Amino acid sequence: MEDNNRNLILATVLSFLVILVWYTVFAPEPVSDQPSGQPIAEQGIGDQPLVPAGTPAATAPADLAEAPAAGEPVGRVPIQSEALAGSISLAGGRIDDLLLTRYQETQDAGSPDVRLLSPSSATADDRVNVNVTRPYYAVYGWTPGPGTDAAAVPNPATVWTLEDGQTLAPGQPVTLAWDNGAGQIFRRTFALDDNYLFTVSQSVENTGDAAFSAAPYGIIARHGRPVTENFFILHEGVVGMVDGTLIEMKYNAMTDMDRVEREGRAEIYEVSGNGWIGFTDKYWMTSLAPAPGQAFTAVVKYAEGADIYQTEARFPMQTVQPGTTLTADSYLFAGAKVWDVIRSYEENPGIQRFVDSIDWGWFHFLTKPIFRLLHWLHGIIGNMGWAIIALTFVLKTLVFPLARKSYISMAKMKELQPQMEEIKARTGEDRMKFQREVMELYKREKVNPAAGCLPILLQIPIFFSLYKVIFVTIELRHAPWFGWIQDLSAPDPSSLLNLYGLLPYGVPAQGTLLHSLTLPVLAIALGVSMWLQQRLNPTPTDPTQKMIFAWMPWIFMFMLGGFASGLVLYWITNNVITIIQQYTIMSLHGARPDLFGNIRASMPSRKRGDKPGKEGAGK
Q: Any idea where the Membrane insertase YidC/Oxa/ALB C-terminal domain is (predicted)?
């Protein structure tokens, strides 16, 4: 069994090294979700975004429109649904106040709702304080055509009038209006579905005597760099789709863009028919989505002087003849990246590959089916913890043929142990001859010595794919299992320091290495299950291998104790199933593991009268 133990050690050490590097180098700093607050009833006008210039091909920002004095009150139109609460500012007709009422910052009683969008009302001092929500909003407007005065089109500071409706709610749209006094009346109608999709209809009615040209646009602006998880495997920043090609750009890449637009930087993408563009956080997203089939220009922009991160959807220039009306429809997604919700938007209204706004990562060919299976199991079971356990059984069933071959090979190697001992006695110190005759024995008996480590190596991509799913999908956020495990996306909160809740003492913050060293319950269960799995094989005679085997389960226990409890639960379940499979299959092939004998052999023993460090003393 020495070669089999060597293979097992190699695979285990490889797994440990990968996890160690991952945890120590790329582990995120614990941060809270977006700061939140209460809906804003009345707000003054602050800084404005950079609007497109006077021609559709131009990429330079126009001069900022003159705004009313800061702090001057303007009206607001309430937003209310089961999923959202907030308001639309009549200043600019912008959506800049939005709370996600289905999600709270923490699981504490009375925790405020997660705030997604905020008005540009914070002071300069506030914007350097990460605990204050920075301005983040969506605003729409029109770019004047050739020969059209910029004052003839509404800008981000224009104060609109509520023409129709009172509260924006599902089935209750509202319409804003603005008359430029030169023969054109602009209207902006907002409609909202039961979740997070706004339908925005911009129109201009030309009641004048001459033709009027303008180009509609939509902007999502973030003032200042937002607080992010800053984790290697997580994308936060710009996300979009350009005719089937996914676009991702982090905030630091936006500031490094070398394409200059006067005082800012920009990247421009021409979309022929299907696309969307916006900003994504870990769980939340705000995105502009023109109607399917509508050509537009997607722009990613950073205004260095104003420190504004911005995405835009610019539409082609249109001419409105006298007595006619021009209408441009588009969509705004502002909410949580719930998989079945955003997938439904792929079907209606037809936003292409919208589900790819979830950061599936490099192993998307594994993370997507794993999540879909987990989501399906959760729908049946109703509890995400038990769904993870059921998922583990399904995955182990899928790889069972490989595991079966591995355990059969291990059983055959155990049968060959007497012959290997004979070869060792015959070859003596000639290691080359020993290895050559052992390989001939394997070949003759059709035994693959590497088969023992294949199931363990196969667990590595599955482990990281499940880790990605648990880390990025909102369905796992604050998902309870039972008892003290009330958030499977967070580490096990229990700790030996307070005797697992019996003493009224605080413990180190979850997710830190110090907390994982305080032995959470799931971490202990993981270490014990790994130790029992090792005991299915005899203890190696080589002292180095024996030492590695002795320490490996407990090192893993401390390292993985700081991982999400859902992931640790998966690993524990996987170990238990592996123990049952290996014991059963090897027993059926006449090589039943001597579990208790191996446990006794792994324990340090000393005869009565022996002295420490004196082998044989007392004989």
A: 384-586
What is the structure's pLDDT at 392? 95
Q: What is the mean pLDDT of each run of 10 residues along the chain (619 residues)?
A: 50 53 45 39 50 46 37 81 96 95 93 92 39 80 88 90 96 97 95 98 94 94 87 89 94 76 72 94 96 94 89 94 94 97 96 96 92 97 97 91 76 76 82 83 75 69 89 95 93 82 69 72 92 76 70 83 89 92 80 71 56 42
Which domain-ending residue is among 332, 359, 386? 359
Cβ pair 143, 57 in contact under 8 A: no
> Looking at the domain assignment, is residue 282 inside a domain?
yes
- The verdict on residue 69 lying in a domain is no
Give the range of the structural domain holding residue 282, as residue numbers without chain letter: 76-359
Beta pairing, strands 275-280 & 237-242: antiparallel
Closest by CA to 282, choosing from 234, 315, 329, is 234
Burial 53-71 (b: 16+ CB within 10 A, else e): bbebeebebbeebebeeee
Q: What is the CATH number of the domain that holds 252?
A: 2.70.98.90
Task: Give the per-residue pLDDT at 488.
Answer: 94
Residues 327 and 275 in one domain: yes
289 and 385 co-located in one domain? no
Whether 139 and 51 have beta carbons less than 8 Å apart is answered as no
Residues 462 and 560 in one domain: yes
pLDDT at 231: 76
Q: Name, in order, each residue with C-beta under 8 angstroms of 424's C-beta and a sequence gap of 6 or more.
A: 434
Residues contacting 605, CB < 8 A, separation 6+ = none
The pLDDT value given to residue 146: 86
Residues 208 and 299 in one domain: yes
When divided into structural domains, the chain yields a total of: 2
CA 37, CA 136: separation in Å to the nearest integer? Answer: 14
- Asked if the structure places residue 342 within a domain, the reply is yes
Check residue 540 and give its pLDDT.
Answer: 62
pLDDT for 57 equals 36
Q: Are residues 382 and 327 in the same domain?
A: no
How far apart are the C-alpha atoms of 537 and 170, rounded to whole Å? 63
Query: Does 409 lie in the same domain as 453?
Result: yes
211: left (phi over 0), alpha (psi -120 to 50) or beta: beta
- Residue 613 included in any domain: no
φ/ψ region of 154 (left if φ > 0, alpha if ψ in -120 to 50, else beta) reads beta
- 284 touches 337 (CB < 8 A): yes
First to last CA, the chain: 31
Answer yes or no: do 428 and 576 share one domain: yes
CA–CA distance, 597 with 603 (Å, rounded to integer): 10
Predicted pLDDT of residue 509: 67
Q: 412 and 266 share a domain?
A: no
Q: Vertex 282, ends 278 and 288: CA angle to 5°? A: 15
Distance CA 405, CA 276 (A): 48
Q: What pLDDT is recorded for position 445?
A: 76
